Structure formats: C-alpha cells, structure tokens
Design the sequence.
C-alpha cells in the first residue's frame, strides 16, 4: 500500500531504530531507551486490577474520570505551584497523546513551531504529521543547554504560533532556571505564542526543585504536560495529563475524541492510586537516578570524556566527537558501538540537526549494566579517536 504523504515524510525516531537493531543482538547492553528499570509499585497495580475485577472496564469521559482530574488538580496546585481546578486538567494516553491533541487543537497546518536542538524527536515527528514546520533554536553548552530568549527571538516569523519548552529536559538533562524562563515567557507574550511546556520529568530534578512555566503565565498561554510514565515507572500504562488555562480544555477534549477517545479505564484507577497513595517510591527512584548520574559523570570526568552533567530527567549526553564521529557520521559511531562492543546508545542527530557530536545514554538502566556500558563507550571513544 502507498504511504500517505505525511507518514512518508516523517523521519523515524533514532531511539526506536537503535532499539530494534539492539533487539537482534544477544546480550546487548541497553542504554538507549527512557525506560525505568523499576517495576510499577504494587499498590498501583492492585488498584487497577481491583478496578478491572469490579467491572470498571467501560469508556470513561474523554477528559478522564472526575476523581482523577480532581486529584491531579490538587497535585499540580500543591507540588507544581499551578493553581488549577479539575476543569483545567485533561487525562491523556501518555503525555505523547496530550502533546499531539494539543498541537492539533492549537497550531495551524503551515504554521511554524519552535523547539530546542537537541530535543525529544517525537515533537518534530508530530509536527511533520500535522504539517507544522519545526524550527530549531540552539541549546548552547555555554548556557548549560538551557534555552535563551535571545537565541529564540531571531527565529520568530509571522508564521510562528507556538514554542515547545522541556524542563527537566530530554535528552539534555537541563533544568531551565527561573530567569531564563521568565525571559522566554515575556518573549511568548510579545509575539503571542502558545507555550507547550513539557514537564513530564517534574519529579526527577536532582539539585533542588525545577521551575514550572505556568505560574509565570499572566495571560493564559501555557499548556503543561505531565505523565505517570517516569515518575511512577508506568511507561506501559499510557497515562499522562495536561493542564490548560481556564476554558481551554473543551478544545483539547474535542481533539482527543477521534484520536484516543479516553484513557484505559483500569489504568486511570491505577493512576489515581499513584497520585493519592504513598509517594516514597518517587523519592527513592529519583535518589537512584541521582546516584547513577554521579557515578557516570565521575567516571567520564576521570577518563577525560566530555559530557553534559544532567540536573534532571535521566539522560546524559556524551560528546563522542573525539572518536572522529561528528555530524552525519554520529550514526556510524552508534552502529559500530552496537556491533563491536554490544552497547546501544542513541545518536545525537536524532535530537536535532546540530547535535551530531553527542550520543545519549539513559540512566534508567540498572547500575551494574550502566557502568559496564559506559566503560565500553569510553574505551571506544579513546580507541577510535586514534
Ligand atoms: N516528553 C518527553 C520529554 C519524554 O522524554 C517522553 C518519553 O520519553 C514523553 C514526553 C512521553 O511520555 P509518555 O510516556 O507519558 O507518553
């Protein structure tokens, strides 16, 4: 069958490509995906199983069940400083579906949307499907990969309708500071841009709390995306949620109708147990990721391998340019590492056109495998550098 034009034009995510290749290599060390090595806590599984046994297995309202929306409104008010009511919360099939429904609802085909280079590849994929033009702004090492309004402003045209921010960031691990965020919000107001703020790693900030965008919103232009995937090790459950300014949720709910209709009913009850139940698991996982961050950065620093020290999320960018693999050849390094050293990492150029000198590793892997993989990566950078 002939693929449609948008699907034929959409680039594949380099993360998934490496994942598929690594599946065929026995014993490969998997540092490519953002998949927590923890299991979903038992009380969450029990709540979902009980809901299914109790017959809570039908369609729910598109925006999610009210007790969950209410609990999430309380959560974002208390933990993210976003003063929201349940009406402003929409439960989505992972943050990914929330992002897609929001782009469909709020950005026109033919418009331009700003995003960082590097950034999570699914954003640009969604834009491509929706005929929105992705325009990358540089995230500079000198600014700790934090977006700077001065780098964004020159890229704004009369077609620019929205900007995508992501803090704590994937793949950068950067956490946008309050001053940079205030400048970006001011820029968005001046150019009338919708701000998509992806905060799915809100609970994974290592050096103090991150700064959410919505509390800096003075005129109703910020949509914030959250997820259960990373916070509670629930990637396969597919539950996320978004928070919008008052009155905007019916738009998103309307877009959600033909795309996902509603989120899996028992999974919503698992999510309710997650957000209202004990939160120790969240801190335990964050502490484990922080320890791994410290182990890996200590090791790479000791070996003299340049990298970006993450302040949040659970990824780390390693500069492999010394191995001779830069720009479009970054992929060659990744393929060679997989074939010759059995370690799967993601090529930087999947995150943006200017990020080819990096590879991304995930700290969500168990520490013994993580350190073995990082040691093999460091050996490869040194040996192949000549
Ligand atoms: N946003 C970012 C920055 C991510 O890294 C991910 C997943 O890797 C998502 C969104 C998607 O999360 P979900 O599993 O909730 O769809």
Sequence:
């Amino acid at each position: 069958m002939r693929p449609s034009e948008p699907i034929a034009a959409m680039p594949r995510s380099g993360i998934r490509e490496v994942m598929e290749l690594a599946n065929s290599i026995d014993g490969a060390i998997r540092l490519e995906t953002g998949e927590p090595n923890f299991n979903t806590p038992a009380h969450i599984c029990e709540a979902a199983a009980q809901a299914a046994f109790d017959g809570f297995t039908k369609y729910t309202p598109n925006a999610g069940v009210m007790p969950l929306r209410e609990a999430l409104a309380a959560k974002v008010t208390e933990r993210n400083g976003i003063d929201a009511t349940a009406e402003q919360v929409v439960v989505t099939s992972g943050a990914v579906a929330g992002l897609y429904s929001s782009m469909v609802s709020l950005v026109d085909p033919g418009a331009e949307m700003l995003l960082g280079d590097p950034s999570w590849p699914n954003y640009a994929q969604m834009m491509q499907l929706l005929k929105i033009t992705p325009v990358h702004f540089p995230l500079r090492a000198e600014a700790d990969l934090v977006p700077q309004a001065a780098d964004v402003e020159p890229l704004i045209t009369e077609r620019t309708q929205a900007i995508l921010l992501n803090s704590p960031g994937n793949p950068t691990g950067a956490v946008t500071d309050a001053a940079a965020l205030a400048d970006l919000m001011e820029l968005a107001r001046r150019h009338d841009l919708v701000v998509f703020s992806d905060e799915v790693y809100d609970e994974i900030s290592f050096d103090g709390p991150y700064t959410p965008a919505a509390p800096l919103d003075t005129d109703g232009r910020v949509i914030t995306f959250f997820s259960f995937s990373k916070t509670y090790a629930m990637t396969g459950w597919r539950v996320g949620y978004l928070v919008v300014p008052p009155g905007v949720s019916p738009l998103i709910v309307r877009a959600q109708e033909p795309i996902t209709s509603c989120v899996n009913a028992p999974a919503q009850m698992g999510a309710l147990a997650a957000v209202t139940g004990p939160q120790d698991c969240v801190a335990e996982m964050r502490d484990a990721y922080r320890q791994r961050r410290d182990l890996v950065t200590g090791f790479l620093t000791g070996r003299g391998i340049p990298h970006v020290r993450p302040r949040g999320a659970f990824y780390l960018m390693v500069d492999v340019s010394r191995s001779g693999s830069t720009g479009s050849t970054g992929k060659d390094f990744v393929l060679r590492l997989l074939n010759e050293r059995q370690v799967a990492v993601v090529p930087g150029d999947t995150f943006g056109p200017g990020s080819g000198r990096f590879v991304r590793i995930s700290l969500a892997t168990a520490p013994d495998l993580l350190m073995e993989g990082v040691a093999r990566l460091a050996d490869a950078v040194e040996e192949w550098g000549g």
